[in-house]
Amino acid sequence: IPVDPFDLVIFGGTGDLARRKIIPALYRRFIAGQMPPEARIIGAARGDLDDAAYRDQMRGALAEFLSGDLNADDVSAFLDRLHFVSIDATGDAGWSDLRDLMRDDVIRAFYFSVAPSLFGALAQKLHDQDIAGPQSRIVVEKPFGRNLKTAKALNETLARHFDETQIYRIDHYLGKETVQNLMAVRFGNVLFEPLWNAQYVDHIQITVAETVGVSGRGAFYDQAGAMRDMVQNHMMQLLCLIAMEPPSRFEPDAVRDEKLKVIRALDPVPSDDIVRGQYAGTDDIPSYRQDVENPDSQTESFVAMKVGISNWRWAGTPFYLRTGKRLRARASEIAVVFKDAPHSIFGEEAGRHRNILTIRLQPNEGMMLGVTIKEPGPGGMRLVDVPLDMTFADALGPEGEHVPDAYERLVMDVIRGNQTLFMRGDEVEAAWAWTDPLVDAWEARDERPALYEPGSSGPEEAQILMHRANRRWREIK
Ligand code: BG6
User: Fold this and answer.
1) What residue stretches are annotated with the Glucose-6-phosphate dehydrogenase C-terminal domain (predicted)?
2) Substitution candidate for ligand 1 out of 210, 211, 228, 365 with most atoms within 8 A of CB
3) Nearest 5°: phi and psi at 41?
4) How far apart are CA 352 and CA 384, in angstroms?
5) Is 300 in the pocket of ligand 1 (CB under 6 A)?
């Protein structure tokens, strides 16, 4: 179904995110028939391009970042929707051109795909130049601040000119099909919800493992580290969707209210329950410190932690979070590890087994439930775990094979005016309020992260964190 006609202005229209994600996502939606004929995409950036030169650049981006054969006619038809305005975010140049280009009878959306230091200036300009009206929307990329103080200041700056209902803070994890599926699995089935609590769940593991290092973005990353780059936002969102109470409706504030309650119920994490790691190098692979060109860096490229939630549903059931770069495999999953059956009627020699529900977020998207059955054979009753395993590609056929990119969903949601999959200001602030003391504590201790081998599962200390409680991380593979 096509969305309403729109003008989408992408500040940073020639930048990496626009080329890699936003423009390819818009192209796919165009092909899917969602873009009405009147829709326009306006790249805005410094630089002296005209429409034709911009279209050429974006043709290159589509060829580079979309797999499969692109139909040249489709590409040209899409590129016809693109325009370019040369603009100076902090100066005066270009703003009147942009104003002249805007139309009154369509939705106006402004995507801030620029350095965070420019967010405030852009909001101010859009207001001063009378370009954004009460119906306009702004889209803000991460990082949303680097602590509570800066996030608050940013929220205040944006709030000066935009209402909360106009602000779309992106966490691209929420746009991932499989992340939305977490809600479908939990709230679309009667099977899981009765067991989804501390009485039946021993613990939950959330892993986002990456094989890439940080070369190329070292300057940014070294100031952030895994805690700010991944935990405060993406991991936190995953934790919220797993832990939250059922919202009464799948509507923006109903969902975001429930997520906020989870963040506010998170316990402070004692330093013993956090492991920070940094990847070492080998003869062939540069170390983290080489990648960021900072021989003394104490920034973490890996973090593992045990987090408690103080509410009735989860008190006593820890959530283990783990994320890192240069690990053995790219694998993100959530594992809900259920408790032992209260009593084994088969005796101890039959073996003790646990149900584990694993939701694979990427790659090989799907889910698996470990079920205990009888080991075949004429002997006694021995138990064995077998997987009920489903990949979305197999289960859903061609529909399940093309997993749309997160940005396809999110950009269209901005046009539709649906904020459900975007973070509200208070959510972001609450997440920082929980993160800040943890970071402050290790910075005050001047703590060094533990080194780990590239291609491993992270530092040994992360294993010990689990072993202490007689638990084990699931293998990264
Ligand atoms: C980004 C982080 O937000 O998410 C990156 O800044 C990380 O460091 C990326 O690599 C992971 O996203 P995805 O979609 O590849 O899992």
Assistant:
1) 183-474
2) 210
3) -120, 125
4) 9
5) no
User: If phi over 0 gives left and psi between -120 and 50 gives alpha, with beta otherwise, what is residue 417?
Assistant: left
Q: CA-to-CA distance for 247 and 225, rounded, in angstroms?
A: 32
Say how far apart CA 41 and CA 13 lie, in whole Å.
Answer: 9
Q: Which residues contact 96 (CB under 8 A, 6 or more apart)?
A: 129
Q: How far apart (Å, rounded) are the C-alpha atoms in residues 218 and 284? A: 19
Read off the tokens for 354: 């646990």
**Ligand 1 proximity of 229 Cβ (cutoff 6 Å):** yes
413's enclosing H/E stretch is helix 406-416
pLDDT in tens, 191-239: 999 999 999 999 999 999 999 999 888 999 999 999 999 999 999 999 9
Can you give the pTM of this predicted structure? 0.95
- Other Cβ atoms less than 10 A from the Cβ of 358: the count is 18
Instruction: Give, in order, the Cα–Cα distances in Å from 9 to each of 17, 98, 463.
Output: 14, 9, 47
Going from the C-alpha of 11 to that of each of 24, 41, 67, 115, 298, the distances in angstroms are: 16, 11, 25, 10, 34
d(CA 128, CA 24): 31
Q: Which two tokens stand for residue 340?
A: 């032992």
- pLDDT tens-place string over residues 347-374: 877 777 889 999 999 888 899 999 999 9
The answer to whether residues 454 and 280 touch, using CB atoms and an 8 Å cutoff, is yes
413: Cβ–Cβ under 8 A, 6 or more apart, which residues? 168, 175, 419, 420, 421, 422
Mutate to test the pocket of ligand 1, among 179, 220, 230 (most ligand atoms within 8 A of CB): 230
- Residue 152, H or E segment: helix 148-161
| Helical axes 425-445 vs 252-265, angle rounded to 10° | 20
Q: What phi-psi label fits residue 382: left (phi over 0), alpha (psi between -120 and 50 degrees) or beta?
A: beta
**Strands lying side by side in the sheet with 366-374:** 383-391, 366-374, 356-362, 331-338, 201-209, 319-324, 302-307, 274-279, 450-452
